[in-house]
Amino acid sequence: MDRTRRRVGRPPRSEAGDTRAELMAAALKLFSRNGFVGTSIRAIAREVGLSESVLYSHFRNKQDIYQAAMRMAGPQGAITALDALDGLDSADPANFLVTLAERLFEIWDSPQSRQVASLLVRDGLLHDTALSDGIESAVARLAEVFNRWVAEGRLPADLGAAEDLAFALLAPIAHARMLWLHADASPGQRRTAHDRFVRHATLFARVTLGAPAPAE
Amino acid sequence: MDRTRRRVGRPPRSEAGDTRAELMAAALKLFSRNGFVGTSIRAIAREVGLSESVLYSHFRNKQDIYQAAMRMAGPQGAITALDALDGLDSADPANFLVTLAERLFEIWDSPQSRQVASLLVRDGLLHDTALSDGIESAVARLAEVFNRWVAEGRLPADLGAAEDLAFALLAPIAHARMLWLHADASPGQRRTAHDRFVRHATLFARVTLGAPAPAE
DNA sequence: ATTATCTATAGATCTATAGATAATGC
DNA sequence: ATTATCTATAGATCTATAGATAATGC
Questions:
Q1: What residues contact B66, with CB distance under 8 A and at least 6 apart?
Q2: pLDDT in tens, A53-87
Q3: N or C end of chain A, less CB within 10 A?
Q4: How far is B32 from chain A (nearest CA, A)?
Q5: pLDDT reported for residue A66
Q6: Rounded to the nearest 10 degrees, what angle do helices B162-180 and B129-151 cross at?
Q7: Distance CA B67, CA B60 (A)
Q8: What domains appear along chain B, each with residue ranges and CATH number?
Q9: Distance A54 CA to D12 C1' (A)
């Protein structure tokens, strides 16, 4: 990351790294901290220790760097977590819900996911359909699980619409993510997030299923 | 807002408006849309139809405009809504909760509140303590109400910590606000937000109080 | 010959200031 | 005299390009 200033000309093999990947990581870091307009090509190059013109041999323009960085970070969302838990949902509902919260925490606590969260929030992507679509489809996906539970008699039918229940479980977790799992969250903030994730899932399980929460 | 280009010199009385207020409103609008760094002094001046140098006779610098605009918009938060409902909480708990959701919607649906929401989300204020402190104190304030209800036998004592319950009610509402009650939300998005606010409060009341929701 | 870097620079902003100009209110 | 605006401009960035330079791989 912090190479010393190079001399003119192509650097020798021994000093070569994966420049493109380093540039994308630096870009994601700075974009997430200062936003798209708040981050200059120059600043990204300086972060990696290169001249700014080198970015134009790897990317077409600033927008292209942004897109490449977002593609690299990938969409590690709630849907992924739900898919991974597919086998577990027929076993113990309360355990499923708390495990889901734990799983979401693990995914969203990684440095890169936290940078993506900051970036989503910053650059209008929040107000783009990207994030709200993500929430909507995760809610719909979880609602299917709840409907199945109702059909199987594992969940009372008179609580309310499955979609409303799914929103009531996921929205506080998504909210805690945005508040406390961002790019430069302190260890304390990350603990707060974890605490909120688990306590909310536990409360939700107890109130809707009438069961005590499983031991952590 | 869209005055034609003025001629040199102080404008006659007939054309004078409240320039300072117009500048702050324009600044809030543009900051909320494009962020602090994404908004130039020049753009704010052009929005009001004045030369950019006029901003320096009303404000010290760009940062000063930002602060003035935020102060003008004011902190119309959940605490305000809770205070306004103070008399109601001893009457009908379910009604109190749904009324709170309606009240929060009214406050946060105004154009200026929506601009503030966008701005909070954009310029790191989300990651500043400002917003998370706001949530924390609103949660604490509502938890007091819940504790009183438990003491009065209006709310079952075995549901969980009052603070967790308060978070479970408020976080989805705050989340829906950030997703759908932003600066340039469509009428459809604003309806979605209202729908979410009310449906969540209704569900929450039914599940925790065991009572049917009051008619809207 | 190709690739990965560099230096230098054009042209477009942007913030902020200096100083001119014309209306207002005493 | 004071106030509210204007024009003009200095100085600092920023994006993007042109062209030089040195290592690599055939």
A1: B27, B31, B36
A2: 999 999 999 999 999 998 888 767 788 888 888 77
A3: C
A4: 10
A5: 94
A6: 140
A7: 11
A8: 3-68 (1.10.10.60), 74-209 (1.10.357)
A9: 23
